Amino acid sequence: MTIARILTTKGREVITAQPHRTLLEISEILASRRIGALVIVDAQGKLLGILSERDIVRAIGQRGAQALDDPASSHMTSEVVTIAEEETLLATIERMSLGRFRHVPVLKDGRLNGLISIGDVVKYRLAEMEREQSALREYIAAV
Ligand code: AMP
């Protein structure tokens, strides 16, 4: 299954924030949107990094509650692993597993065009496995 196909049903909205936003502001967005990571972009929408709930927990664990006043840029990951629309769900799973993260932004022509989370991976992989199983059952019944 391609990423393009997943985005056709999932949608292409990516919730972003600019790097000067504080960890408190980012936490408020994560909580209200019920998500685990924000993609950090500049004013032109160029990808600068990713900041997840784990980064916020790490910052508070290291610096205490005062870390909530720090800008996103101080705690985000700048080397973002991305995926292209033409690539597959399996390639996304491999990348998440290798990098030990749960979010992969989708790029098209260098622009942000979607995001695949671990929740999406589970949902679409499960649907794919169910389809494979029923195809196998039909095949066995036919022989
Ligand atoms: P997560 O599992 O997505 O909450 O992220 C765990 C750690 O990996 C955090 O430090 C994130 O900033 C970082 N991270 C999340 N997604 C990516 C990604 N696509 N590329 C690189 N780092 C990431």
Automatic annotation (TrEMBL):
Keywords: CBS domain. Pfam families: CBS. It comes from the Bacteria. Residues 7-68, 76-131 form the CBS domain. Signal peptide: none annotated. InterPro entries: CBS_dom, CBS_dom_sf, CBSX3_CBS_dom, Diverse_CBS-Domain. This is CBS domain protein. It comes from Methylovirgula ligni.
